[in-house]
Structure to design on (182 residues):
């Protein structure tokens, strides 16, 4: 019988979609209060791959990614998604908006994959708990990314890949430091 081992800690990331810089700034400030300091921020990317959010959030949306210094237990991903959903509601109220002002997409980066949390079920998604599913976004190879049939169109962009490969490099360094401490 194979020995059951604890999960490796994972690197928490969060994708933010919004129109205004003030929404990004406030969301980041609140995320830092929840999850600790950010160690890497992407630049802003034009988000025009779907009009899914336009009706609620308006046109000219941008996306940004954050990665956080503190590693997380990967089994906490569903809890983290509930926290970010609550934060979306809090920011909507703070800015007295009819719809969301920011969309928050948390995920975890492991040595081999990027896994995003979602409340939407689909054939390839794995139930976690409390209505949250794991969406395997893509796989890491040595120095590249392998997209999958269901990888979101914007996550197929090389410019995103550069960011996630840099986050992975930081993360692998963190894991190496943990091994040295043991």
């Amino acid at each position: 019988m194979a020995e059951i081992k604890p999960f490796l800690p994972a690197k928490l990331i969060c994708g933010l979609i919004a129109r205004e810089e003030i929404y990004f700034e406030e969301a980041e400030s609140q995320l830092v209060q929840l999850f600790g300091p950010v160690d890497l921020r992407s630049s802003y990317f034009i988000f025009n791959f779907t009009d899914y959010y336009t009706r609620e959030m308006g046109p000219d949306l941008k996306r940004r990614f954050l990665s956080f210094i503190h590693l997380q237990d990967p089994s906490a991903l569903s809890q983290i998604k509930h926290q970010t959903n609550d934060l979306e509601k809090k920011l909507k109220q703070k800015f007295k908006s009819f719809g969301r002002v920011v969309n928050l997409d948390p995920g975890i980066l492991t040595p081999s994959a990027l896994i995003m949390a979602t409340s939407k079920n689909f054939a390839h998604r794995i139930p976690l708990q409390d209505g949250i599913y794991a969406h395997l976004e893509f796989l890491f190879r040595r120095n590249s990314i392998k997209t999958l049939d269901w990888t979101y169109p914007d996550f197929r962009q090389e410019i995103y890949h550069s960011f996630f490969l840099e986050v992975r490099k930081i993360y692998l360094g963190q894991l190496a430091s943990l091994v040295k401490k043991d």
